[in-house]
Design brief:
By secondary structure, the protein is α+β, with helices and mostly antiparallel strands. The chain has a domain of about 45 residues. It contains 4 helices and 10 strands, in the order ααββββββββββαα. Strands 9-1-6-7-8-10 form a 6-stranded mixed sheet. The chain has a two-stranded antiparallel sheet with strand order 2-3. Strands 4-5 form a two-stranded antiparallel sheet. β4 and β5 form a beta hairpin. The longest helix has 17 residues. It starts with 8 loop residues before the first helix and ends in a 7-residue tail after the last helix. The relative contact order is 0.18.
Length: about 240
């Protein structure tokens, strides 16, 4: 029967100071940094950053029972139904399309030659204890790199957002999200940005191309999203933190 001996404090201190320990910590830190740009948990609805603004209800006014004019039956012919207050709803028409293309090519080369010949002193070749002083050094380094990328994205549809705030200069802060439950998971669209009241059309819509400081997110959760996502190990080896 064998009994394991407890590790002493001195052995723990030697383990912490060992190069293998620091190498393991370094690799762990790089792995965590390589995964930092990817969410570790699924996004869930109800984020306060995209929640609608709930305006308190106004107190009902007294109804006038006049013979010629009644408040209940009144109709305004010149009232503007476009969003301009906090809590109003506006429809954003998504019409986003981006096309990018980039190509780079780099070539670096360097070569060096160094040659040392024997000198003569009093007609005899100078040597070191019979060894020749002839030396020849050559160095040649080259680097060739090229890269090319083509990307095209498009997003179309619509989302109803709410006016979260009205800035002193008249700009409207809008935000909203839309969640759709499908057979293999959920898909969502989130939107934030600034708009001008002058850009709102008569039917209370605005194109997404006229939103300033826009933050538009389209993604999904569930089995389909998990299947198309790389594991943390693959993300680390494909990240910029991998030294080779």
């Amino acid at each position: 029967m064998s009994v394991s001996k407890p590790i002493s404090d001195r052995q723990n201190e030697q383990l912490v100071r060992s190069p293998r320990f620091f190498l393991a910590l370094w690799l762990m830190a790089l792995a965590l940094q390589g995964c930092a740009s990817y969410p570790l948990a699924d996004v869930e609805p109800g984020d306060p950053e995209y929640a609608p603004v709930l305006v308190p209800s106004e107190m009902p006014r007294a109804i006038s029972a006049g013979s010629l004019y009644q408040t209940v039956a009144g109709m305004s012919l010149y009232e503007d139904r476009r969003a301009y207050r906090s809590g109003d709803i506006i429809t954003v028409i998504l019409n986003e399309r981006t096309i990018s293309s980039k190509s780079t090519e780099t070539s670096v080369g360097k070569s060096a030659d160094l040659s040392m010949t024997e000198g003569t002193l009093l007609g005899r070749a100078v040597d070191l204890k019979g060894n020749s002083l002839l030396a020849d050094l050559a160095q040649d380094r080259t680097f060739d790199g090229n890269g090319e990328t083509d990307q095209e994205n498009s997003l179309s549809g619509s989302i109803a957002a709410t006016v979260a705030d009205v800035l002193p200069n008249g700009l409207l802060v809008i935000r909203g999200e839309k969640w759709m439950t499908l057979t293999t998971g959920e898909e969502f669209i989130r939107l934030r940005g600034l708009i001008r009241p002058e850009d709102i059309s008569s039917n209370n819509t605005i194109p997404s191309t006229k939103i300033a400081d826009a933050r538009i997110s389209y993604s999904g959760t569930g089995e389909l999203a998990d299947a198309s996502r790389q594991g943390w190990g693959s993300r680390f080896f494909n990240s910029r933190y991998w030294p080779f």
